[in-house]
């Protein structure tokens, strides 16, 4: 009696239930029974394409066992379950010849790799399978491009903020996206936001706690703005509604993609109140905390123009903030600023620039302009678009940042209760701080500290 192994594989398993490989295995076992073979091992690769070139753990383990001589017979549902690459097929043929492996398929019977005719048949089947995979891949790419152009969604797992059909907003999650967007535009770090959400039990679409990469990726999805992206480019207005306005999403994207954005605490995991917020009054560079004569100090990191004791400068700024929020007219700080329509005009101008970029891409696609001309046009328009998008960015939601402080009976106590991230967000929202050299002598001097209210 021949001892045999079964190999089963399916390229795509959207449900994650493994039903496709289970059906293959059942039919392979039936074939083994007909042949009088005893199945000793089943090798599985679920949701892995043979055409993609990705490592298939089950397949690699099978080859190792064939090489070791522990597998003498192999049953597969169809030869294309084993290979869709001529390179892989040749490797398998060489191994089968050396080990005299018997190969049987459910669909087409025996595959004799010991004879020239059998190997030719296997190669022909492999060539056909490769053609079918390439043809299918081309059809899928065309379909995905057309779906994107029409504003339709692709398939896949349920995205956060949306019901399984990907067309209807899930309001409970959409509220989280809106809140996070507002907090990011107010200057709060991503880390602080998702940690807060996790503490409140507001987890991702899989029900798991947020991590930095997954939370960032969710907020960068164009679908939340009612836009359709394809290959990283905006291609159309989506067929689904928007959770947040497009200009708000673009502002968030600009913040999260800013290479100069500081996203981690300083030395020892400490987050200093004014790092990166206060600037040097001499050269305009951001101030960071360093050591000056064994004392922590805010220093100009570009040219060492300024050095001020960290604790004294922070105490002064905190006192100014608390005093302003304790005033009778503090509620006025919650009112959104009136920009006289500047943001709307910038948004309209940005849309016109995007249309010019789309027209240039269409002209290149139709052969009207060359690749060099397209690059020139794009190079000129991209900086203009970035400036307009920055001007069109919505203002931070001041009420969400300052509301609890303004309404607190004891502002100083409410300030102390805030996290370091939240305090930095308040300072960034309320003021611009320039620090110049102070007068020499004992004690801390407020000379040279300029605070401009936003």
From TrEMBL:
Short name of one Pfam family: Recombinase
InterPro entries: DNA_bind_recomb_sf, DNA_bind_recombinase_dom, Resolv_N, Resolvase-like_N_sf, SSR_resolvase, Zn_ribbon_recom_dom
Organism domain of life: Bacteria
Domain Resolvase/invertase-type recombinase catalytic: 3-151
Coiled-coil zones: none
GO molecular function: DNA binding; DNA strand exchange activity
Domain Recombinase, residue spans: 159-262
SUPFAM superfamilies per the UniProt record, alphabetical: Resolvase-like
Protein's name in the database: Site-specific DNA recombinase
Organism of origin: Micromonospora inositola
């Amino acid at each position: 009696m021949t001892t045999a192994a079964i190999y089963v594989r399916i390229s795509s398993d959207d449900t994650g239930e493994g039903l496709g490989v289970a059906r293959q295995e059942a039919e392979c076992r039936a074939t083994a029974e007909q042949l009088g073979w005893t199945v000793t091992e089943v090798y599985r690769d679920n949701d892995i394409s043979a055409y993609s070139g990705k490592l298939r753990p089950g397949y690699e383990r099978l080859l190792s066992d064939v090489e070791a001589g522990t597998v003498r017979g192999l049953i597969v549902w169809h030869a294309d379950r084993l290979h869709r690459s001529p390179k892989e097929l040749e490797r398998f043929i060489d191994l089968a010849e050396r080990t005299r492996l018997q190969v049987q398929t459910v669909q087409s019977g025996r595959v004799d790799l010991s004879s020239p005719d059998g190997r030719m048949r296997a190669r022909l089947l492999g060539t056909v399978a490769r053609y079918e995979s390439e043809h299918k891949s081309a059809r899928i790419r065309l379909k995905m491009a057309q779906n994107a152009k029409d504003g339709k969604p692709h398939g896949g797992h349920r995205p956060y903020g949306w019901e399984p059909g990907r067309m209807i907003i899930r309001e409970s999650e959409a509220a989280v996206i809106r809140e996070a967007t507002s907090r990011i535009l107010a200057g709060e770090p991503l880390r602080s936001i998702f940690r807060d959400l996790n503490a409140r039990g507001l987890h991702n679409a899989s029900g798991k706690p947020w991590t930095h990469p997954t939370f960032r990726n969710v907020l960068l999805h164009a679908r939340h703005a009612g836009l359709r992206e394809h290959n990283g480019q905006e291609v159309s207005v989506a067929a689904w509604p928007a959770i947040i306005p497009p200009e708000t999403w673009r502002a968030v994207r600009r913040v999260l993609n800013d290479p100069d954005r500081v996203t981690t605490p300083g030395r020892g995991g400490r987050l200093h109140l004014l790092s990166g917020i206060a600037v040097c009054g001499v050269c305009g560079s951001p101030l960071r905390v360093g050591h000056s004569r064994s004392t922590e100090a805010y220093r100009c990191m570009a040219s060492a123009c300024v050095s001020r004791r960290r604790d004294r400068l922070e105490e002064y700024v905190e006192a100014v903030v608390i005093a302003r929020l304790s005033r009778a007219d503090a509620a006025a700080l919650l009112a959104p600023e009136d920009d006289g329509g500047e943001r709307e005009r910038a948004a309209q101008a940005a849309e016109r620039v995007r249309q010019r970029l789309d027209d240039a891409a269409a002209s290149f696609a139709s052969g009207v302009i060359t690749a060099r001309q397209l690059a020139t046009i794009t190079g000129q328009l991209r900086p203009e678009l970035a400036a307009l998008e920055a001007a069109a960015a919505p203002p931070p939601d001041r009420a969400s940042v300052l509301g609890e402080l303004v309404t607190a009976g004891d502002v100083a106590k409410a300030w102390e209760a805030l996290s370091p991230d939240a305090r930095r967000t308040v300072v960034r929202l309320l003021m611009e701080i320039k620090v110049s050299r102070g007068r020499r002598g004992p004690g801390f001097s407020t000379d040279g500290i300029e605070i401009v209210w936003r």
